[in-house]
From TrEMBL:
EC number: 1.3.1.98
Predominant location category: cytoplasm
GO molecular function: FAD binding; UDP-N-acetylmuramate dehydrogenase activity
Protein name: UDP-N-acetylenolpyruvoylglucosamine reductase
Catalytic residue positions: 172, 246, 342
Domain of life where this protein originates: Bacteria
């Protein structure tokens, strides 16, 4: 564990964002310990120019679309560690450092017989980024098993504990995205994983994959492997084709709007929500507008999944924005549904 804080200038973030955009950070620091953050806090208090820089907390770079040049202080989180923090009658309380690979952490929990996160297998990024985005997939959101997190406040220099209520989770959202971005640096996250585990098979793709594998009574590891196979069949590997996974949120609409759409488009894919609203499949909407597989010079829409935008080589953040906005306009004009972008443009 390093204690010395090293600030670097004009650092290329190409290898640190999964879209593979060449973006240069004004100032960059790798964070591996709380002592480095304490040193940074003191430096911010004494260096007016550094304090004025906007801040970007960088994890795996899997939910970002970067500009060519970032006039930012970029903090690249690499705090590691995984452990069983405590046990209750009903739960294993498991802690992971913010810089840990999310997928690696999920596989570790399953190997330790702490089930619960299997439906979130193979989601790119780090543990620290998971609560910021409230990641979710295949009928589950991270918040369901979230317990608490520790975050360093760069303004006060103290460590604050956030429980579930303080995080203000919403669909692909949290307080960390809405309030003073760059102020709180997540150090580690605790999850409460159930001792009385039940399989989550509400998504048909998982059930189909398990049937193909002749698995009638799946374990948590079986579900994880099924999710991995499904994601690999639909989503490109960022190491081969730059992307940030699903680019648009699945829109939530009222029952009335959903019924109007179903009358016009009976094949429209929708899922009933607990409050009576419906979640629409953004990928289906985009595909119906003819975008699936469409390519431009530097960017395009993945041929296997219309939700995914890809870097065809040399893409800039501006290129990605133009493509995303054209898709949004088409979907709005045809279906009257506004798509929201999932990654953050910086």
């Amino acid at each position: 564990m390093k204690s010395e804080l090293l600030l670097q200038q004009n650092v290329d973030l190409h290898s640190l964002n999964t879209f593979g955009i060449h973006s240069h950070a004004h100032t960059y620091a790798r964070i591996e310990s709380v002592s480095q953050l304490l040193a940074l806090h003191q430096l911010l208090n004494n260096d007016v120019a550094l304090r004025k820089l906007p801040r970007l907390i960088l994890g795996g770079g899997s939910n970002l679309v970067l500009s060519d040049s970032l006039p930012h202080l970029v903090l690249h989180m690499e705090i590691g560690g995984r452990e069983l923090q405590a046990e209750t009658e009903d739960h294993f309380i498991v802690r992971a450092g913010s810089g840990e690979s999310w997928h690696g952490f999920v596989l570790w929990t399953l190997a330790q017989n702490y089930p619960g996160l299997e439906n979130l297998s193979l989601i790119p990024g780090t543990v620290g980024a998971a609560p910021i985005q409230n990641i979710g997939a295949y009928g589950m959101e991270m918040q369901e098993y979230f317990h608490s997190l520790r975050a360093f406040d760069l303004e006060s220099g103290v460590i604050r504990i956030f429980d579930k209520q303080a995080c203000e989770f919403a669909y692909r959202d949290s307080v960390f995205k809405r309030t003073e971005p760059g102020r709180f640096v997540i150090l580690d996250v605790n999850f409460a994983l159930p001792k009385k585990w039940q399989a989550r098979l509400t998504y048909g793709d998982i059930a189909s994959q398990l049937r193909e594998s002749n698995i009638a009574v799946p374990t948590a590891m079986d579900i994880s492997q099924a999710v991995i196979a499904i994601r690999q069949s639909k989503l490109p590997d960022p190491a081969e084709i730059g992307n940030v996974g699903s680019f648009f949120k699945n829109p939530i609409v009222s029952r009335e709007q959903r019924d109007r759409l179903m009358a016009l488009y009976p094949a429209c894919v929708s899922y009933l929500q607990s409050n009576g609203d419906y979640k629409l499949a953004a990928g289906w909407l985009i595909e119906q507008c003819g975008w699936k597989g469409r390519r431009y010079e530097t960017v395009g829409v993945y041929e296997r999944q219309a939700l995914v935008l890809v870097n065809l080589g040399g893409a800039t953040g501006a290129d990605v924005r133009v493509l995303a906005e054209e898709i949004q306009v088409d979907v709005l004009n045809r279906f009257g549904v506004k798509l929201e972008v999932e990654p953050v443009f910086v």
